[in-house]
Specification:
By secondary structure, the protein is α/β, with parallel strands linked by helices. It contains 19 helices and 32 strands. The protein has an 8-stranded mixed β-sheet, sandwiched between helices. A 7-stranded mixed β-sheet has the order 5-4-17-16-18-19-20, with helices on both faces. α1 crosses α2, α5 (93-109) packs across α9 and α13 crosses α14 (375-385). The chain starts with 9 loop residues before the first helix and ends with a helix. The model has no long low-confidence stretch (mean pLDDT 95). The structure holds adenosine monophosphate. Residues 247, 293, 369-373, 391-393, 395-396, 419, 484, 486, 498, 501, 507, 512 line the site of adenosine monophosphate (AMP).
């Protein structure tokens, strides 16, 4: 134990958080406001489902906005910076409050109530944040769909969520190019089997849009009608649903990750204190997008709950020049920054003088997450900005870091190549995939957690408890354990290293994509008989998708021109249905895929060949000629 009076170490805090789980989290729960106190801290009577802070009544919007009005009404809360449309606008907590209440009033006027779902399909504009917070205020469940997803992806999420309302915009803008949202939304609503009655459009004047009478409403018009209306906070029981966010897995259908209210608020408040060390009145800058979990936790809720101003940045790291992120740090005296390794690798290719141009003295640390952080990139950025660079590993499912260093508890040094140590609350184990036994230090195992999962983690899969149990808790033999589907290794000092996925999920520029989803999309093209998609290492994006396609009629790809045309068509199919984010970098045509005798596609071997590695054990292959074809296709493309 720590010497008397000395602060406990991270290891001690971690041990206590597991041993005295309930008293540990009851203490953390004091970081937020409760309208009614909770009784029982944890109900774990139905493993693996955990229910936190039973009977407590609270509200995320209250904790993120209203709570701060007394002490900091006139301090910045939401800072909108758009290099796309050249707008810079600061909303104080009082102004944010007003706008959220107006949005809430508009939603209520459209019939949205407690427990109803609202799909938010929006570019990075303030109204997107107002919409999320307005849902939280009235107890509606938001489901943000990343703006880069196209009509089919959106339609499948609409079908699963059955929303009462979709909030969207005429258009977004990326790298100076207008991206129309409304036509994609209209197409998605056509495809969806149960379209909502109402669609609310924020008209930015970027693209003309067609109004569907009786369904589409213009936000500015309705806002005017509800300018001064009051919408009180809806106090929710801690375990009511705050939001769902869809994430890819090994099947073609994304899962709706469902989060609660109280546990979510407590976990984020604790992470702001112990991990990000952000103080009220300071500024937080996450370069992510509200369509991802990082945007939920660390653009919107986390910083605001902590009383910090948060930057909502609509733009890329390179426009108008590669100094833009650091210029924003200087301009808003940012103290905590959060980005992704891909963004840093993009900057690494630019003139390094951009990093020395701005005053970064306010910045205490740069957090990076979402994909493996390679050591050269980590060293480069740490030296270039002269600040600690803190890797952190987590998932959409957990909502906050599983592995990192927690400088609010102990000043442990980060180690390059390692995202860090187990965070408090996570009973983390490395398990043997065949036996379920724990592996020793320096041995490879599946990164797993013994439930109950801590507050803030997903409650279940939206409307599908079975899928939650089947997907996450049924892969480790002999014991109930949550699998992260990542391989890992732990050194003797407790630092973990992530070694890649155990499943077929790939990670492109920090975004998780299921190869099945891309395969199903390619297979929807009438010329395709079957296909396989694998993730291939890429120096910029971490991984890219590469596709191998078997055509129904191979003569359709007989010559180079025909192949090129068909490749273009298949890529356009992915753009249209899934979004450009899922587009493979190459589509190769073969007449058969390498499979086992039982018909399973040998993805690992395909991936190895793409990365010019040894394809591994091929004793089960049905026809070795398939591998030869692959080699030839790759050789021809090289
Ligand atoms: P997502 O839920 O989309 O954020 O993806 C989570 C997955 O991204 C994890 O299961 C890992 O495979 C990967 N990942 C996230 N953060 C890191 C990190 N810091 N280091 C290595 N892999 C990471």
């Amino acid at each position: 134990m720590a010497a008397q009076g000395a602060a406990p170490s991270l290891k001690e805090v971690h041990e206590r958080s597991i041993r005295e789980r309930e008293s540990f989290w009851a203490e953390q729960a004091q970081l937020i406001d409760w309208n009614e106190p909770f009784g029982q801290v944890l109900d774990y009577s139905r493993p693996p489902f955990a229910r936190w802070f039973l009977g407590g009544r609270t509200n995320l919007c209250h904790n993120a906005v209203d709570r701060h009005l007394a002490a900091r009404a006139h301090q910045p809360a939401l800072i909108y910076e758009s290099t796309e449309v050249d707008v810079s606008r600061v909303y104080t907590f009082a102004e944010l409050h007003r706008e959220v209440v107006r949005m809430a009033a508009v939603m209520r006027s459209l019939g949205v109530g407690r427990g109803d779902r609202v799909i938010v399909y929006m570019p990075m504009i303030p109204e997107a944040v107002f919409a999320m917070l307005a849902c939280a205020r009235i107890g509606a469940i938001h489901s943000v769909v990343f703006g880069g997803f196209a009509s089919h992806s959106l339609a499948s999420r609409i079908d699963d969520a059955e929303p009462a309302l979709v909030v969207s915009a005429d258009a977004g803008s990326r790298a100076g190019k207008v991206i129309e949202y409304k036509p994609l939304l209209d197409a998605a609503l056509q495809l969806a089997s149960r379209a909502p009655d109402k669609v609310l459009i924020v008209d930015r004047g970027l693209a003309p849009w067609e109004r569907v009478a009786g369904r589409d409403e213009d936000y500015a018009t309705l806002r005017e009608r509800h300018l001064d209306e009051d919408v009180p906070i809806e106090w929710l029981e801690s375990n009511e649903v705050s939001y769902t966010l869809y994430t890819s897995g090994t099947t073609g259908t994304p899962k709706g990750v469902q989060r609660d209210v109280g546990g979510h608020a407590v976990a984020l408040a604790a992470s702001m204190k112990y991990i990000f060390c952000g103080n009220a009145g300071e500024t937080y800058f996450s370069t992510s997008d509200i369509g991802w979990v990082v945007g939920h936790s660390y653009i919107v809720y986390g910083p605001l709950i902590a009383g910090m101003a948060t930057i909502l940045y609509e733009g890329t790291p390179l426009r108008p020049d590669p100094g833009i992120l650091w210029r924003l740090v200087e301009k808003h005296r940012v103290s905590v920054m959060f980005s992704a390794p891909t963004a840093i690798r993009v900057l690494k290719k630019q003139d390094p003088s951009w990093l020395a141009k701005y005053d970064l003295s306010s910045l205490r640390a740069l957090f990076l997450a979402g994909e493996p952080l390679d050591e050269p990139t980590a060293r480069w950025i740490a030296e270039a900005i002269g600040k600690p660079v803190i890797d952190n590993y987590w998932q959409t499912e957990t909502g906050w870091p599983i592995l990192t260093v927690a400088h609010g508890i102990e000043k442990t040094e980060p180690r390059f190549g390692s995202p860090g140590m187990a965070m408090y609350g996570y009973d983390l184990r490395l398990l043997d995939e065949r036996t379920g036994e724990e592996v020793g230090n320096n041995e490879k195992g599946v990164v797993a957690m013994i439930p109950p999962l801590p507050p803030g983690c997903m409650q279940t899969v939206w409307r599908n408890d079975d899928r939650f149990v089947q997907t996450y808790f049924s892969t480790v033999p002999g014991r109930l354990a949550y699998s992260t589907f990542d391989w890992g290794i732990r050194d003797d000092d407790g630092y973990y290293f992530i070694l890649g996925r155990t499943d077929d999920v790939i990670n492109v520029a920090g975004h998780r994509l299921g190869t099945r989803e891309i395969e199903e999309t390619l297979s929807s093209h009438p010329a395709v008989a079957e296909c396989a998609v694998v993730g291939v290492a890429d120096s910029l994006k971490g991984q890219v998708a590469t596709a191998f396609v078997v055509l129904k009629d191979p003569s359709k790809a007989a010559d180079a021109n025909a192949r090129l045309a068909l490749e273009g068509e298949l890529m356009a199919t992915v753009d249209k249905r899934l979004g450009a984010i899922g587009r493979p970098n190459r589509v190769h045509f073969v007449t058969m895929l390498p499979k086992t005798r039982s018909g399973k596609v040998l993805r690992r071997s395909i991936q190895a060949l793409c990365e010019r590695r040894d394809p591994g054990d091929l004793t089960t292959i049905e026809d070795p000629g398939a591998l030869e074809q692959l080699r030839q296709a790759l050789g021809a493309a090289a």
